[in-house]
Amino acid sequence: MSFNSFGRVFRFTTWGESHGPALGVVVDGCPPGLALREGDIQTFLNKRKPGGSKFVTQRKEPDTVKILSGVFEDDRTDGPRTTGAPISLMIENVDQRSKDYSDIRDKYRPGHADITYDAKYGFRDYRGGGRSSARETAARVAAGAVAELALKEMLGPDFAIRACLVQMGEHKIDRNNFDWTEIDNNPFWCPDAGAAKVWETHLEAARKAGSSMGAVVEVVASGVPAGYGAPVYGKLDADLATAMMSINAAKGVEIGAGFEAAALSGEENADEIRIKNGSPHFLSNKAGGILGGISTGQDIVARFAVKPTSSILNPRRTINAQGEETEIVTKGRHDPCVGIRGVPVGAAMMALVLADHAMLHRAQCG
């Protein structure tokens, strides 16, 4: 299988399957000398791991990370430091229930990659989807942790990446109530306390009915300097779109005002510029911090839409590998809204793209 790697200078390759013994990632191109302990990465993985509430899959995976290579420690290094060599990270699978999928080994789940995977490769790992499972994103989050730590080292304390859920099903947050401190106060990473209560009611009803809901994830990077990206085939927003669309169940990406920009006038959409403290100052951020594929120095804002989880308990019409029409019910442990655990994954992909562009910028412009 090809295309398991992402990035150019800061590059990562994920490996492993949902129901295999382990999964992991190799991070290549990380600068040497970065302080890196397993606990630094574990903090990020704990935000994504399953079983955190009744609103996510009850698969009990601790997602404990092991650093296998790429760091060195002795009495002169003040703790483990990256060497510049590839950093290999491993996360063991400890709570697989492959028997939950025995009933669907010859059936194609509607909304899943089963039928396309089989069409391309001629066979598939039906146990949780194998490589096409969202379990793979644990490896991305581990890589994203390394990327974010490297960016903080390069860009300083003003750099930060934050992510949240801004819509679940048809229910959006009230932007007037937006408060980043709220995201740790509810199980949805929701910045609007009122919206979180509404979501809880609707998602609980969907969960009990054996159904699921979609969502929209918003990711914001602050403290990114102007100049990252290139104006033709290395656009920062194009790479962000690729990164976010590569996340399982993502069906749409927007930057800044995104699709709403189509309804604006030229005057409304233009981010006017003044001088403040001797530097350019934008009066709005419809562009999402990127113009002509290059960062402006404003917050970089990206959103991606996540479809409802395809694994549901209600019967759906499908076909089997023999070409016979049948029905299917997907058993097992699944997220009623996969967008919830997509929040830390989106943050990780933002970090990985920015780390790559930071190093590309440094390579060309010094």
Shape annotation: globular
Quote the distance from N terminus to C terminus.
37 Å
Strand and helix order: EEEHEEEEHHEEHEHEHEEEEEEEH
Number of strand elements = 18
The largest β sheet comes out as: 5 strands, antiparallel
Low-confidence stretches: none
Calculate the mean pLDDT score and round it: 92
Helix/strand structural class: alpha+beta
Rg from alpha-carbon coordinates: 21 Å
Total helical segments: 7
Strand fraction: 15-25%
If strands are numbered along the chain, what order do they take across the biggest sheet? 1-2-3-7-4
Helix content: 25-40%
What can be said about this structure in brief?
The protein is of the alpha+beta class and about 375 residues long. Helix content is about 25%, strand content about 20%.
Question: What this model shows, in words?
Answer:
The protein has helices at about 40-50, 115-120, 135-155, 195-210, 235-245, 265-270, 340-365, and strands at about 5, 10-15, 20-30, 65-70, 70, 80, 85-90, 160-170, 170, 215-220, 250-255, 275, 280, 290, 295, 300-305, 315-320, 325-330. The longest helix has 27 residues, at about 340-365. By secondary structure, the chain is an alpha+beta fold. The mean pLDDT is about 90. The strands form six sheets. It has a five-stranded antiparallel β-sheet with strand order 1-2-3-7-4, with helices on one face. A five-stranded antiparallel β-sheet has the order 9-8-10-16-11. The protein is about 25% helix and about 20% strand. The protein has seven helices and 18 strands. About 45% of the residues are buried. Helix 5 (about 235-245) packs antiparallel against helix 7 (about 340-365).
